[in-house]
Design a protein that fits this description.
Its cofactor is FAD. The protein is of the alpha+beta class. The protein has 3 domains: 2-180, 2-Layer Sandwich (Uridine Diphospho-n-acetylenolpyruvylglucosamine Reductase, domain 3); 184-272, Alpha-Beta Plaits (2-Layer Sandwich), CATH 3.30.70; 275-357, Alpha-Beta Plaits. Helices cover 32% and strands 25% of the residues. It has 14 helices and 18 strands. It has a 5-stranded antiparallel β-sheet with strand order 4-5-9-7-8, with helices on both faces. It has a 4-stranded antiparallel β-sheet with strand order 12-13-11-14, sandwiched between helices. It starts with a strand and ends in a 15-residue tail after the last helix.
Length: 394
């Protein structure tokens, strides 16, 4: 397959414009680290942002950074760290789960709305995304947003592009609002809780005024191996006070320990990147968003119909589930559970044949699907950009 790697926005515009005229379907990617996510795109050629690199704007005093879409996330992180700042939404790195190589790009973070454990406090990537430049399916260059966060009337193209998976446009530049790095990170660890008691503890912490920035539960092979973790960040004096208060809130549920330093950071990275499942290369992985208090019931319902392993992030609102990559990979049990209890399930990892035959994303109601088709037709009338990557025929 021919892969185009434009060196600038104008070249990308020309390539897409010619593809639209010829009906050439394009697979959109950066460094291809997430090619195994979503439905396999049925494309004639590839269009990569790999050569669109570099930070184009960084104003530490204004807490704003802009970079071309093919810029490695690691470069953006280093640039911010030099000034004591960071991306607030803590984007996940999918490489360990997908077994891929290369450098994740900042454009993919925006296009796929990738967020990590801090989403419960800082919001998703789309909440920090304040500006985009992209080329639509006609080959037209579009700019939306800018250097400040503001309310707008009408269609918010910035938020629309976040999570569109390259189906509406080829991102060339993204602008994010950033935050100062916290002086201290500290994690409260509770051992031995079952799922329901763990989610109760996390809900109590999140419902408090103590600014929790991470809330996860990792069931163990037995009850004692289970870890419930609550993260607090900020100035050291503030963290000390809030830790004591949260400890008091959850003390009836079990004894607690305090984790700090590299060990605690590694633990949160394993939650962020779902490396709990990295050794299960022969299994499928699902990602389910639901109401936090419904998480344990949803998991129990799924486990009645399929052999599963799981853990919780976002206070129970995000459930990662691993199932055998056979048959429907547990799709029937998972979809039935989300219909009954509420939620949205995404198939993150599975063999290509399964991803071609199953709904990778939560099926949409007919009116919503009609709206989705209409938006796609408006931005990409020839249907050449990542066709079928999210939904068959779109």
């Amino acid at each position: 397959m021919t892969v185009y790697t434009p060196g600038d926005e104008q070249e990308a515009s020309r390539i897409i414009g010619e593809a639209a005229q010829k009906g050439t379907k394009l697979q959109i990617f950066g460094h291809n680290t997430k090619a195994a996510l979503g439905r396999p795109a049925s494309a004639d050629a590839g269009l990569s942002s790999a050569e669109l690199k570099g930070v184009t704007l960084y104003e530490p005093a204004e807490l704003v950074i802009a970079a071309r879409s093919g810029t490695p996330v690691s470069e953006v992180v280093r640039t911010l760290a030099d000034k004591g700042q960071e991306l607030p939404f803590e984007p996940m790195d999918y490489r360990s789960v997908l077994g891929s190589q290369g450098e994740p790009t900042i454009g993919a973070v925006a296009a796929m709305n990738i967020s990590g454990p801090r989403r419960i406090m800082a919001g998703a990537a789309r909440d920090s995304l304040i500006g985009v430049r992209f080329v639509n399916g006609r080959g037209e260059v579009v700019k939306s947003g800018g250097r400040v966060m503001k309310n707008v009337t009408g269609l918010d193209l910035v938020k629309l592009m976040a999570g569109s998976w390259g189906t509406l446009g080829f991102l060339t530049e993204v602008t994010f609002k950033v935050l100062p790095k916290q002086e201290r990170r500290s994690t409260l660890l509770i051992r031995g809780l079952d799922d329901k008691r763990a989610i109760e503890a996390l809900s109590q912490a999140l419902g408090s005024p103590y600014d929790i920035t991470g809330a996860a539960h990792l069931p163990g092979p037995d009850r004692q191996g289970a870890h419930t973790i609550i993260r607090l960040e900020g100035f050291s004096v503030s963290v000390d006070y809030r830790l004591a208060e949260v400890r008091r809130l959850v003390k009836k549920l079990g004894s607690t320990d305090i984790l700090e330093g590299r060990g605690a950071d590694a633990l949160w990275q394993s939650v962020r990147d779902a490396t709990v499942f990295s050794g299960l290369s022969d299994r499928a992985i699902w990602r389910i968003s639901t109401a936090p208090m419904k998480g344990p019931d949803l998991v129990a319902r799924i486990a009645q119909g399929v052999e599963a392993q799981w853990f919780y992030d976002w206070g129970g609102g995000l459930v990662w589930i691993s199932t055998p990559a056979e048959g429907d990979a547990g799709a029937a049990a998972i979809r039935e559970a989300t219909r009954a209890l509420g939620g949205h399930a995404t198939l993150v990892r599975a063999p290509e044949a399964l991803r071609s035959s199953l709904d990778v994303f939560e099926p949409q109601a007919d009116p919503v699907m009609a709206l989705t088709r209409g938006i796609k037709a408006s931005f990409d009338p020839s249907g050449i950009l990542n066709p079928g990557r999210m939904y068959a025929g779109i």
